[in-house]
Amino acid sequence: MDSSYTSTGHSSSNGGRVEFPGRTCFCGCTVRMFTSRTSQNPGRRFLRCPKLHLSTFSYLLGEKCDFFEWVDQHMCDRAGTIIPGLLVRLNQLEDHNRIVEVEKNRLSEENRLLYDCVVQLQVTNNALRYKLKLVLICAICCLLAFVWFM
């Protein structure tokens, strides 16, 4: 069995693994449902014991269970031809989505920095306007004083 599979289903989730309520394996554990991503059984769901992939040492101690059962029937040849291509496309789209997410985060950070710059420029602009008003008032007062004493 290739180790290429993902957890799937609509049952209660436990740490990213989907338990299949009411079903137990040879050792009494609640079985978990996964979806195969192998080229031989693409998209085919299966149940397995959570102890299936324990180490050889655990197996010798009796802590490993070999329970494995297909949930879905074997697919027709056409589905076996089409699904791997769809999985490749899905992986490409997921990769693209990760790239877009990174770019979105980068742009969000850049947007935040630009917003901070705009706020700082507004504060500076307001301060300069205030200083300009003071300079104009001083200039008008000097001009009036000059005219008054002439």
TrEMBL record:
* Name of protein: GRF-type domain-containing protein
Q: Does the keyword Mitochondrion apply?
A: no
Question: What does the record give under GO molecular function?
Answer: zinc ion binding
What keywords sit in the KW lines?
Answer: Membrane, Metal-binding, Transmembrane, Transmembrane helix, Zinc, Zinc-finger
Q: Which domain of life is it from?
A: Eukaryota
Give the species this sequence originates from: Penstemon smallii
What InterPro entries does the database record attribute to this sequence? Znf_GRF
Entry keyword annotation includes Metal-binding: yes
